Amino acid sequence: MTGRLRTAAVLEAALDLCVFLLLPLLVLFPLTAATLAGAAGLCAFGLAAPAGFAAWRGLRRPALLLAALLAWGLLSSLWAVQPGRSLLMAARLLGLFAGGLALIAAAPLLAAPGRLVGWLCGGLAVALVLTAVQDWTLGALTRPFVEHVFDEPRLNHIESALVLLVLPLGATLVLQRRRLVAALLAVPTAAAILLLVGDAARLAFLAGIGAAAALYVARRSVARLAAALGALVVLLAPLIFPPLLGIKAVVRPVEHLAKISMWHRLEIWNFVGARIAERPLLGWGLDSSRAIPGGNEVIPFPSVLPLVEYLPLHPHNMTLQIWLELGLPGALLCALLVALPWLTLATAPWPRLYAAAAGGSLTAAFVVALGSFGLWQEWWIGTEFLALFAILAMARALSVDDGAAAARGPCRARPAQPMP
Question: pLDDT at position 412, please?
């Protein structure tokens, strides 16, 4: 083995390890996902760099869009509420985006993608066990290492990550004729998603299943429709989400829920809508959500409920946050970034079942983004990039399997998957 091949093998093994560690770390120490994604990005760059420009040719559009978003965010520091924080966030995002692009470039170059699928299965199995232990023991595994008291929402990180990966991984195992393994992993994963407390993840999972079914029937049409709808949701977000607080048909069911989080979301979005209207063109500056004037004021809820602020850290809605911080230019760039994966999925040379499952994952990611984490949270960006890398690697594994089957001859080759 030459030195270059040996180095590539070591880097690929390191990427396998990163994929294995992702889900267990999200159970125990979720914020470390950003560091893990950074390490994986460096390994991916080392794997893709020797391939030259060919490995990066397909990344021109996302790279240009991400670069434009970063440039606008950097420029927004001139009028941001906290200029220093905007500059710091721009630097962090530069590293995260660069690492994510490297992971996308490296996925088609994997020599043993099937091995990575095995490591992902192992990581999922470990994560499911750790999740059950953490839930049943109220955080006994991490109690000696963290100061905060464990509560159920601390498992929202792993719950949302499971939503991103369960459908593509299940489809991969089914297409590889490993149906028993698929069932043994998919059933407890679905149970974890549905039984844990994250409402956004549950809704995302159900939406992902529905989208996958539609994509299986008519992939190109549904993917293009989803691209248009996703872009419209981003562009019309200030007209969609803030007014919900004034719609009785929405407010009345929420008032009777035991969880305050749903009502709080409506109050946050209403407050953010008013702030967007004050600076609709330029926004308040990159990562300024936590410093918006009036955001730390307490909402006058009934006294039986805990005191909560109008804007705690971020709007819990990707589309509103991009409008709030980066205004119309940021929203336009975000709309293009939302549409681009769907347009790519419409023509991706993947098996019908796998393309549908990947679309389900894409739908789930968008739904989570509409009601859960902050847009710039590094651990979540890192998780999304590593999940995307795993999805592309699984597609690579299926293409390698098809190539090997075809090489063995028509009698032993697996039947070609129909494309919609």
Answer: 41
Q: Is 417 domain-assigned?
A: no
- For range 337-344, the mean pLDDT: 96
Distance between CA atoms of 241 and 258, rounded to whole angstroms? 22
Question: What separation in angstroms does the CA of 181 have from each of 172, 398, 414?
Answer: 11, 16, 19
**Is 70 part of any domain?**
no
**Which residue do the tokens 């709080």 mark?**
264
Domain that holds residue 296: 17-56+75-405
Q: In this predicted structure, what is the pLDDT of residue 297?
A: 84
Domains in the chain, number: 1
pTM: 0.91
Q: Which residue has the tokens 């190109």?
A: 220
Q: Is there a domain that residue 413 lies in?
A: no
Contact status, residue 219 vs residue 346, Cβ threshold 8 Å: yes
Which tokens in the block code for residue 162? Answer: 């499971």
104: in domain = yes
Q: What is the amino acid identity at position 75?
A: L
Q: Given the structure tokens 């989803």, which residue do they identify?
A: 226
- With H, G, I as helix, E, B as strand and everything else as coil, classify residue 309: strand
